[in-house]
Amino acid sequence: MKFLLVFDFDHTIIDENSDSWIVKCAPDNKLPNELRNSYRPGHWTEYMGRVFAYLGDNGIKEDEMKRTMTTIPFTAGMVDLLGFIGKNKELFDCIIVSDSNTVFIDWILKAADFHKVFDEVFTNPAAFSSTGYLTVQNFHAHHCAKCPKNLCKRQVLKEFLDKQLERGVSYTQIVYIGDGGNDLCPVMFLKKDDVAMPRQGYTLERKISQLAQDLSPVECSVLVWSSATEIMSYLKVLIKE
């Protein structure tokens, strides 16, 4: 009996958007209008590449970025939840599927000593170049019309489950914890025994509600949360059953 916990990162594990938070490193804590206005829907990763280039051009170094990123607050109750999962790792496999990047997630999880809670992190690969600039790439190429160009979370989840099955690992239940519009695609992949946990007041909750109103509800159960202590309460019941 093993459960798979799938977490988004921004506005789910942390209470902010990590890509927006890095702007605190920019001169006067803001980006020039022409850079801000250069974003095109579905092409966030390319936009962040330009943001990182701007920070590099302004002499913002790795240590300053790291200091800034590790001040991001965790979502209410999340520290307790991750501590609980860490103590019960024999029951939970735990992955992150995020539109952030490897550098930011690694810094934040390691600073709080939560990196061992997660078995795998699927996010956009990032690295510092020889000139000290942070660079980021798309996670993969995919053919899903619903998702941003760089990442289809459903495809990531499906490929992870297939790989686990080859290793002889299957899950009693998948619990998907997220907040954003790009979390809807993987949620629609979940089966009736699984649970989607959208964060209250965020896009994922609204989109799931809209599907129910349109009489095409998601197949899995839906439990809304505002504090991660509610997620922990659910998991405690789950492992007692």
Which key phrases capture this entry?
241 residues; alpha/beta; Rossmann fold; 6-stranded parallel sheet; two-stranded antiparallel sheet; 10 helices; 16% strand
What is the number of E strands? Answer: 8
Number of helices: 10
CATH architecture of the domain at 2-15 and 74-124 and 147-239: 3-Layer(aba) Sandwich
CATH class of the domain at 2-15 and 74-124 and 147-239: Alpha Beta
Strands of the biggest beta sheet: in what spatial order? Answer: 3-2-1-6-7-8
Principal-axes geometry comes out as globular
Q: Strand-residue fraction?
A: 15-25%
Q: What is the percent of helical residues?
A: 25-40%
H/E element sequence: EHHHHHEHEEEHEHEHEH
The structural class is alpha/beta
Radius of gyration: 18 Å
Spans of at least 5 consecutive residues whose pLDDT stays below 50 are none
What name does the CATH topology of the domain at 2-15 and 74-124 and 147-239 carry? Answer: Rossmann fold
CATH homologous superfamily placement of the domain at 2-15 and 74-124 and 147-239? HAD superfamily/HAD-like
Distance between the termini: 11 Å
Instruction: Please tell me the overall pLDDT.
Output: 95
Largest sheet: 6 strands, parallel
Cofactor: Mg(2+)
Binding site for substrate: 19, 99
GO molecular function: metal ion binding; phosphatase activity
Family: Belongs to the HAD-like hydrolase superfamily. PHOSPHO family.
